[in-house]
């Protein structure tokens, strides 16, 4: 059984799917691991470390793809790569199957068994495989650092001989995985932090990090699905929410937006009018940039300056911390492989199992994922 790790080809992608430490676990199980030359270079995992872990380095990408029984990557490989794979190959990566119909058709027609790291259910048994949470946590941390870096002010309170400087005010919108990490990071840097989320359940978590929870009056108590995700707000609730955010935005130095409703475009929380009411030099970091943005002015991958306010729309922010992002993704991948492989390193697909069922998108020419079947 050969596990192959290609070099990522997407723009801005510096991560590698498996780090040498995880490769060692696979070679100890008796699996052959082939790594494309310099696959880990951009995240500082060097070829020599892979060789020490028992892997072989392959210079020829098409040979690597042809040799794969299991192909492990971060982003979905381009279609020409998928065409090169043999029938029955197992592919594990971020697939975003709902948004990528053509790729799913290709995987189905080639009888590739494709597992989506983004489709791992957020249940406690699958926590060690939850790559989305690992990556969002990194994004939240880095968003606070980007905000601090771009702001022309201190974050902490400073008592100097030249006078006292008040701490910066940070407003975090959306207190899920990324939002909570942004709050924690901004607090550690000494800012005064406020946060808002439509799920009242997170108020306690926000407060436990030392931030103030912003209350919007009369929001529906049922703003959460059974799976713990947010539901879309009604139009009048959205309007009330915007009024409250507007008041808090006027006083904020940094706004970090992370609001997400699974399967929907990012909710619009910060309007152009609000940006115009912020002070000169204020910064907005919009983590939802790739999904349409939580701010009306966001452009993915760009910094827009409106009325001297910087609106930053970072893309693939996790690649800015590629070493640890690769480490965490690799550990999540090991969690999933451990779940699928038997003691001899052979994969088994038990579709009675909730994790395997939800994560498997295609298998033997069929669609397996209930999420896709329902769609
Ligand atoms: P999550 O589901 O854990 O959290 C999203 C939060 O938004 C939830 O708590 C939800 O209740 C809240 N929310 C939904 N609608 C809201 C509204 N109208 N007002 C306030 N809060 C609202 O998601 P996450 O994993 O923390 O990801 C957050 C965002 O970060 C997503 O947009 C994700 O795509 C993005 N992200 C970006 C990168 C990157 O590289 N740029 C990397 C990882 C995550």
TrEMBL record:
Stored InterPro entries: Ala_DH/PNT_CS2, AlaDH/PNT_N, AlaDH/PNT_NAD(H)-bd, NAD(P)-bd_dom_sf
Signal peptide: none
Keyword NADP included in the entry's annotation: yes
Gene3D superfamilies associated with the record: NAD(P)-binding Rossmann-like Domain
This enzyme's EC code(s): 7.1.1.1
Keywords: NAD, NADP, Nucleotide-binding, Oxidoreductase, Translocase
GO molecular function terms noted in the UniProt entry: oxidoreductase activity
Record's catalysed reaction(s): NAD(+) + NADPH + H(+)(in) = NADH + NADP(+) + H(+)(out)
Occurrences of domain Alanine dehydrogenase/pyridine nucleotide transhydrogenase NAD(H)-binding (ranges): 148-313
Sections of the chain in a coiled coil: none
Domain Alanine dehydrogenase/pyridine nucleotide transhydrogenase N-terminal: 4-139
Keyword Disulfide bond (UniProt): no
Source species, domain of life: Bacteria
Pfam families: AlaDh_PNT_C, AlaDh_PNT_N
Family membership noted in the UniProt record: Belongs to the AlaDH/PNT family.
NCBIfam families: PRK09424.1 (NF006942)
PANTHER family: NAD(P) TRANSHYDROGENASE (PTHR10160), PROTON-TRANSLOCATING NAD(P)(+) TRANSHYDROGENASE (PTHR10160:SF19)
Function as written in the Swiss-Prot or TrEMBL entry: The transhydrogenation between NADH and NADP is coupled to respiration and ATP hydrolysis and functions as a proton pump across the membrane.
The protein's name: proton-translocating NAD(P)(+) transhydrogenase
Source organism (scientific name): Fodinibius salicampi
Lineage, broadest ranks: Bacteria, Pseudomonadati, Balneolota, Balneolia, Balneolales
